[in-house]
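tool_call predict_complex ligand=magnesium ion
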Amino acid sequence: MTKKIKLCIFDLDGVIVDTAKYHYLAWKELAKEFGYDLTKQQNEKLKGVSRVQSLKLILQWAGVSKSEEEQKILAAKKNEQYVKLIQSLTPNDVFPGVREFISELKDNGILTSIGSASKNTRLILEKLEITGLFDYIVDGTMTTHSKPHPEVFLKSCEALNIKPENTVVFEDAPKGIEAAKAGGMYAIGVGNPDELSNADMVISGFEGFGVKDIMLKKN
Ligand code: BG6
Ligand code: MG
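tool_result ok
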């Protein structure tokens, strides 16, 4: 596939920063309101899933039915709590090796962008003080389809005028890997290889990782 890497797209939550713990706390608190105890394993299934879809899943697991109007209120309440929790983020929360890897990409003339389902993307990037590292940012306010639809990644390719075959996506969620593959991009999983078996390759993190380590298939 990829002959030459021209663009690297990064998912945000779970790839650049650990926000899953805050999503979990906020969803857990909300679920308590309707007497449901959300487990950590269930939270894993919410990775990469939009706010509204996450709520629908939790309601389904809890066997609770809420009107669309009530769901809007619940999702807003969860977000209020989540936004409070992420106020504590600082530049130190960027995962090890991320800045160094992006700097290497820039030295090699490779463009960088964000492809995240989160509507809080801009706020998080600002808290981490890394907004300026990206040539383009696609967040949950700019997409109509959720991952595994490739829209969130294709938008960066279109905006930066780069073909998907020259694009590498970094993702921690199986649904995100699926989205990258559906878009014709090379997908690198960040995390557990057992959970990300649909990726082209899997890394544990960015520490010590460089462009030379990307194993591109030649054809
Ligand atoms: C994804 C997270 O990046 O963004 C999901 O993995 C989250 O857990 C989704 O639900 C939407 O985030 P937000 O900030 O718009 O509620
Ligand atoms: Mg993620």
